[in-house]
Design a protein that fits this description.
There is one protein chain. This protein is an alpha/beta fold. It is about 35% helix and about 15% strand. It has twelve helices and twelve strands. Strands 2-8-7-6-5-3-4 form a seven-stranded mixed beta sheet, sandwiched between helices. Helix 1 runs antiparallel to helix 9 and helix 5 packs parallel to helix 6. The longest helix has 24 residues. The chain is globular and about 60 Å long.
Length: about 375
């Protein structure tokens, strides 16, 4: 029997964007600093809401947006009618690609930006175009220079992942001003909560001033609800309508909606998480630099650390850490061969990480 051909040939070009951990034969994880979850967890109210909602798990929620959009709007100062709910921001990014990309079109992104983005284009037989950055930072000029009549979408994570770099509000507005009206600027704001640069501007402000900009956000990071898989998009009415039309009939689980509502009702928890993450981000960056590593300034809940001088040292360090029960992230792109991304965890986990890094560096010098 011959298997049916893929309906979209671009699907065959989709590749892994992270290096497989290869956990076979290794000890169980004791410290997970690899996936940018909030190690501080959700608010107690969100945990209680999950347990309570599970008692009605046999029922669908017909319209989670009707419950969540007003609560998000009240929390963020936005228009509830322009909010779409999804299974994490990844679901919404995929739906945007389905709605606006296709054969003969291109998606522009920074070459060192979020490494999964090309797969959104491949899945829709569009062409992803990687534009050189300025180091690990997105170049507005390079993106604008790469726009052609085939360009339908420009993707910008702000702050960026895995580098943690960011563009100021004026730079994002300059990027948007240089785009044709028929090009959609997609701003991925998964890490907006962690920014402390006063020159930064939430993508929501630009959405309100334009007809071709959307912002995607998530409850997976500062709210500590990664396992709940719930995100939201803010955009113009016509784009929201298109994204809603191609969503699942019952898109989000009942406990996830309950957890998100409870988390929004406890802003103090997120504020405490963000403050502690910023403090530890600065501390960890300094500690890694004193050990001779290069640290990219970050506005996310993670730092990108480089191992200059000896090819393969980053991979060896990651392996040594994993053998000690500690996971950090490596990426399947040449630009990141000598780099590791470390999620900000609580102090005891970061102390364990630094001890293991010291041991790995000492072994490499022996």
């Amino acid at each position: 029997m011959v298997a049916p051909k893929l309906a979209k040939p671009g699907i065959a070009t989709i590749a892994e964007h992270m290096v497989a951990a290869g956990d076979d034969g290794l000890p169980p994880l004791r410290v997970a600093l690899n996936s940018n979850e909030s190690a501080f967890g959700p608010s107690p109210g969100a945990r209680d809401a999950i347990a309570s909602a599970a008692r009605g798990i046999e029922r669908y929620i017909d319209d989670p947006g009707a419950l969540l959009a007003p609560a998000i709007a009240a929390s963020e100062g936005l228009d509830a009618a322009r909010i779409v709910i999804g299974q994490g921001s990844d679901d919404l990014l995929a739906r945007l690609a389905r709605a606006y990309l296709g054969p003969g079109t291109t998606l522009l992104r920074c070459a060192t930006g979020y490494l999964k983005v090309p797969n959104y284009a491949h899945a829709n037989d569009a062409e992803p175009v990687a534009v050189p950055g300025e180091g690990f930072r997105t170049s507005v000029d390079a993106l604008l220079a790469a726009v052609t009549e085939r360009t339908r979408m420009v993707y910008l994570a702000n702050p960026e992942n895995p580098s943690g770099t960011w563009l100021t509000g004026s730079e994002v507005r300059r990027l948007h001003a240089g785009l044709p009206d028929n090009v959609l600027l997609v701003i991925d704001g998964a890490y907006e909560d962690y920014v402390d640069d006063p020159a930064f501007e939430s993508g929501a402000r630009l959405v309100e001033d334009a007809d071709n900009v959307v912002l995607c956000r998530t409850f997976s990071k500062a709210h500590g609800l990664a396992g709940a898989r719930i995100g939201w998009m803010y955009g113009p009415a016509a784009i929201c309508d298109a994204v809603r039309r191609i969503g699942l009939t019952f898109p989000v689980a009942n406990p996830s909606v309950a957890a998100a509502l409870a988390s929004l009702a406890d802003p103090g928890h997120v504020e405490r998480v963000v403050a502690e993450t910023r403090r530890l981000r600065s501390w960890l960056s300094g500690e890694l630099e004193t050990r001779g590593l290069t640290v990219v300034p970050s506005q996310g809940n993670f730092v990108l650390a480089g191992f200059p001088g000896i090819p393969g040292r980053a991979a060896a360090c990651a392996r040594a850490l994993r053998e000690d029960g500690i996971a950090v992230r490596r990426f399947a792109a040449p630009a990141y061969d000598d780099w590791l991304r470390v999620t900000i965890g609580p102090m005891d986990e970061l102390a364990a990480l630094l001890k293991a890094v010291d041991d790995a560096l000492a072994a490499a010098r022996a």
